[in-house]
Specification:
157 residues, alpha+beta, 5-stranded mixed β-sheet, 5-stranded antiparallel β-sheet, 17% helix, 52% strand
C-alpha cells in the first residue's frame, strides 16, 4: 500500500503544480475527501556542520478522506520533481497534523516523531478519528525544527 501511495503522490505535483503555485497557502473544501499540494520554497539548513540545500520543485501533499467530522484516513508527504527529485534530502524532519475550529482556534496537534534519517520522500499517516468541531485540518512539515510548509483542508458539513 505504501508503494502505491508513494507512486500516486509522486505524480500529483507535476499534474497540479501550476495550480498549487497559484493557490499556495489556501485551503480547499473537503466534504468527503480532498488532496492538495503546497509548494515548498527553496531553503538551506545545517546538518552536522554541512549546509544542505533544498531547491525549488518540492511539494507538501496532504490527503484526507471521510464524512463530516469523521476522518477515515489522512496522510501527508513530500514529493519533488525535476532537479529537486534528484538532489533533495530531508533530514531531521517531522510532519504534524493540526486541527482548528471555525474561529481558526487550534484545539489539537498531533505531533509527528522527528526522523533523524535523511529521506527524499517523507511520509506520515494519521489514525482514523472523529473531530469534536468543524473547521480545518492541516499538515505541517518541519525540517531541522523549522516549519517549511503547511497545507490545509476545510472540514464542513
Amino acid at each position: 500500500m505504501r508503494l502505491r501511495l508513494r507512486q500516486l503522490m509522486r505524480g500529483m505535483p507535476a499534474a497540479i503544480g501550476a495550480l498549487s503555485l497559484a493557490i499556495v497557502g489556501t485551503a480547499a473544501p473537503a466534504h468527503a475527501s480532498a488532496t492538495g499540494s503546497t509548494a515548498i520554497g527553496t531553503f538551506t539548513y545545517e546538518l552536522r556542520g554541512t549546509t544542505v540545500k533544498v531547491p525549488v520543485g518540492c511539494f507538501l501533499t496532504h490527503s484526507i478522506s471521510g464524512s463530516g467530522k469523521k476522518i477515515e484516513s489522512q496522510l501527508s508527504g513530500v514529493d519533488c520533481v525535476g532537479v529537486a527529485a534528484t538532489f533533495s534530502r530531508f533530514c531531521n524532519w517531522r510532519i504534524d497534523f493540526t486541527y482548528a475550529d471555525t474561529d481558526n482556534r487550534t484545539y489539537r496537534t498531533s505531533r509527528g516523531r522527528t526522523r533523524a534519517q535523511c529521506e527524499g520522500a517523507p511520509l506520515r499517516r494519521a489514525a482514523p478519528q472523529t473531530l469534536p468541531h468543524y473547521g480545518k485540518a492541516c499538515a505541517r512539515l518541519f525540517v531541522n525544527g523549522k516549519s517549511r510548509a503547511t497545507q490545509c483542508h476545510f472540514i464542513t458539513r
